[in-house]
Amino acid sequence: MTPASEAELGRYNVRPLTPGPESALRDAALALGAGTAGLPALARHGRAEAFAVAGLAPDECRVLGRELRRLGGEVLSSVAGDRALLLGPLSAFGELPSRLTAWGRRTEVLGAALGAALAGRGSRPAPVVAGRHVLRFDRRTLVMGVVNATPDSFSGDGTGDDPATAVALGVALAAAGADIVDVGGESTRPNSSPVPEEVELARVLPVVRELAERLDTPVSIDTRKAAVARAALEAGAVIVNDVWGLRRDPAMAATVAEAGAALVVMHNAAEPEYGDVVEDVCAGLHASLGLAEAAGIERERIIVDPGLGFGKTPAHNLEVVRRLGELRGLARPVLVGPSRKSTIGVLLGGAPPDRRLEGTLALCVLAAANGADLVRVHDVAEVVRCLRVADAVLRGTPEEILALPRPGPTG
Predict the structure, then answer these.
(1) Quick check: 249 and 291 in contact, CB under 8 A?
(2) Which of 138, 304, 340, 373 has a CA positioned 20 to 30 A from the CA of residue 333?
(3) Which of 341, 385, 388, 406 is catalytic?
(4) CA–CA distance, 30 with 14 (Å, rounded to integer)
(5) 242 has which bridge partners?
(6) Half-sphere exposure of 4 (CA within 13 A, CB side)
(7) How far apart are CA 407 and CA 395, in angstroms?
(8) Rounded CA gap, 172 and 179, in Å?
(9) Annotated catalytic residue: which of 312, 376, 388, 406?
């Protein structure tokens, strides 16, 4: 066969639509002019899905294989039958949960887990209510600004024991566009020394109280201690940001439940031995969600955080950002805190915290592209501007941009 010329190839203008924006297939189908009649075919053929599953009993694995193959998919399983990779069209996974129900309670629960993961994978999370504030994740990537009311912050921005300086910083972060102002009174840098409860309370309470009074922005308390969380909530905070994900202070879950506060649960581990770091992070966050449920904290109030830099090597941190989309299976909003982290310093040849802005911006954009709903940062103004541009690509062109004319023949 004579090789086709560029002119011949160009006639067909073949374009791969996957991977790409999830709207690309739908838009291409609608552009054919036949209305919505062809859209069901996209679910059958236009989008493949893949899910990793662990904790299976051998009989569950056999049932999965049988039902998914009937729906046009495939199951790849471990020798022991306890782990599997599920492959198939979107339509198969939409129908699979109901098929599994017929096999008994265990497979019914498995089907529910798959259904929740599919829902989390396919749509932005519902809003989270935090006091009188509503955090919406469908419009743009939200930004949490950091107020370190400590003298020993790793990032060099600690305000020491001066409440006025901390309040001024919080006000400035809100003015710069922060959607949440996060106040902490104990450094969580590697090898930091624990702070006595009374010291932490003295640092954060006046700051939280004044910020809650002055700002039309929700205030969160960054603490691992239930007593500090309780006092901060009484002072006006509406979110608890627990770097131990309810797994350090036994009273924390009950404190959050009693206050009706919103909650960030972060993955952390004192002496981790990871197999697959992302799988282990997801398992740890599932455990935190279980503790929250047992205490009566509604799932709809919870945000999850994979904990970059907490019990993880630089290679682990990069792997988590690269595979952040897997956390969508938790069906909760995802918060990522890449700001000024030591991993950036390593990548930039030993750059100190105050020279890590570009790396922070890069990780914020990559996190947003890979599924983050919020980022926690020190440099709020710069990150807000950066994400405004990134979100215009990732989440759709803003209405005000659509109406603009072309600038001219040269650009």
Answers:
(1) no
(2) 340
(3) 341
(4) 17
(5) 265
(6) 7
(7) 23
(8) 12
(9) 376
DSSP letter, residue 285: H
- Predicted local confidence at residue 38, as pLDDT: 76
Give the pLDDT of residue 154. Answer: 57
Distance CA 262, CA 220 (A): 9
Q: Are 343 and 308 in contact (CB under 8 A)?
A: yes
Please state, in angstroms and rounded to a whole number, the distance separating the CA atoms of residues 276 and 83. Answer: 13
CA atoms within 13 A on the CB side of 388: 11
Number of alpha helices (DSSP H) and beta strands (DSSP E) in the chain: 16, 13
Q: How far is the C-alpha of 154 from the C-alpha of 299, rounded, in Å? A: 32
Residues near 254 by beta carbon (within 8 Å), at least 6 away in sequence: 226, 295
Name which of 140, 116, 170 is nearest 299 in CA terms.
116
Sign of CA dihedral 239, 242, 246, 248: negative
- Distance, in Å, from the CA atom of 327 to the CA atom of 207, rounded to the nearest integer, reads 33
Residue entry with tokens 């809100």: 174
At position 175, the amino acid (one-letter code) is: A
Is residue 208 within a helix (H) or strand (E), and if so which, with residue range? Answer: helix 197-214
Look-up of token digits 């236009």: 46
| Burial degree of 345 (CB within 10 A; 0-12, 13-18, 19+) | middle
What's the CA gap between 221 and 326, in Å, rounded? Answer: 27
Contact 328, 298 (CB under 8 A): no
pLDDT of res. 152: 65
Residues 6+ apart with CB under 8 A from 263: 239, 240, 242, 256, 292, 297, 301, 302, 303
- Report yes or no: 371 and 334 within 8 Å, Cβ to Cβ: yes
Question: Taking the complete model, does pTM exceed 0.85, yes or no?
Answer: yes
Low-confidence ranges of the chain (pLDDT < 70): 12-16, 18, 22, 45-46, 152-160, 189-192, 410-411
Q: Token pair 């107020």 is at which residue?
A: 147
Residue that the structure tokens 């924390």 belong to:
252
- Of 300, 301, 334, 306, residue with least CA distance to 141: 334
Is residue 106 part of the annotated active site? The answer reads no
How confident is the model at residue 192, as a pLDDT? Answer: 67
**DSSP assignment of 289-351, as one string?**
HHHHHHHT--GGGEEEE--TTSS--HHHHHHHHHTGGGGGGG-S-BEE--TT-HHHHHHTTS-
| Pairing assessment for the beta strands 374-377 and 335-336 based on DSSP bridges | parallel
> CB of 376 within 8 A of CB of 179?
no
